[in-house]
Each structure stands twice: as structure tokens, then as C-alpha cells.
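Troubleshooting log. The previous structure file for this entry was overwritten by mistake, so regenerating from the original sequence record. Sequence copied from the archived sheet and checked twice against the printout by T.R.
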Amino acid sequence: MKVRIAYIEEPPFYWTAPDHSVTGSDIELAEVVLRGIGVTSIEYQPTTFEELLPGVQEGRWDMNVPIFISAERAKRVAFSLPVWALGDGFLLPVGNPKALTSYEALAAQSDARLGVIAATVQIDTAKSAGVRDSQVVVFKDQPDAIAALLEGKIDAFVGTAVGNRALAHAHRELEAVAHEQSMGGKLPVGAFSFNKGNHGLLQAVNEQLRGYLGSADHRARMAKHGVTATEIDSVVASNNV
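Regenerated output below.
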């Protein structure tokens, strides 16, 4: 049994290692789950964020690595059980010269420029917080956005707080600032996605996820990549309700 899974370059969740292997926390999760349902061959397809949903809809591959669930996306694809809950944050030059600690703080400075990846949920989140269109610079992928940040073309890049910590570790001239979460506020969750007609694969993956998420092996694999109980516990609890 062979499964084709699409991924993008977004450490620590999924990326291409220097030896050209595909790695990351969600890659390890995918491999454990797929091997558990009897998949003998896993083929990884690099793509862009914008192509993830069209690609699985059109059958160019069988599933996507986990991305945030939204009502709009759920109209196009079928999502698995949630596998993590993640808050946003900014990646900035060390010292955070413009004191950009939240979407609202960035919106208050008309000359501040925010880098985003095309088609991500953070675009709508930023705009709902008051960030103007003129402040938003859209990139096709994370490497392009990070290059622009390092060159001073943008003042901040928005991504997940976990992902930004990994990027700051790789680029010592940058630092990560996590956005504060409101008391009692629920973090957005992410999941694998499939063609709506691929019920068999979706059901098999969900069955494996129910038994595996939150296990000692799962937690140990995620911890290697900086994904902690903070990002796991709430989805494990909701999946077991």
C-alpha cells in the first residue's frame, strides 16, 4: 500500500533536511500512523502552501501534512482528528526594535511591515486585529519571507510560536516573540487533510490517531522538535470526549 503526502518547508513540523530526507514532528507522526495502518511505501511531495488544498482535491497526492482547520478549508477537504493546537507569534530582528509584540502593536505603527505566507489563516487574524492591507507583504513560502526579514524588507514575520522558536534557533540574528493568549481562549487546531472522497484512508488514520496521540512515544517524538504538552494536551482531551 502506497500513500503520497504533500508537505511544505516549515520547521519544526516538516522540512527537507540537508541530506534531502523529509523530516519534522508531523512527518514522524505521519510515518507512525501510516505504518500502523499497513502502508508500506510513503512518497513525500514538496509543494507550496497555496497548492496543498488544490493538490489533494485534484488527486495529485493522497493527504497533506497538518495545517490549521478552518470552516472555509473544511468545505474543500476532509480533516482528520486534530493533532496539535498552536498559538501565533512574530519572528523579528534581535532586540525587537519596533516593540512588535502583537498584531495590535504592529497595526499601531503605520510604517511597520508584516510578512505572511499566502493563503494562511494568519492573514485574516492580522486584518481582524487592525493590520492594514498596506502593511501586509505576502510571500509564497517561509524561506522567502525569512530572507526578506533578514534583509530588512519587512519588520516581522508571523507564524506559529513553536515554528518561530525553531527559526530563531537557526538564525541567531532573529528572535521569536509569542503572542499572549486571552484567558480561557482556545488555540486554533491543526490536522491532516484528505480528498473528501477518500473515506477509507481518513477513517484508518483517525483510528490510529485515537490510540496514539498523547502516548509516551508520541510525546517523546514531538518533544525532540520542540512540540510540548502545551500544544498536545488540549487536542488529546477533545479527541477522547
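The mean pLDDT is 96. Archived copy saved in two places this time.
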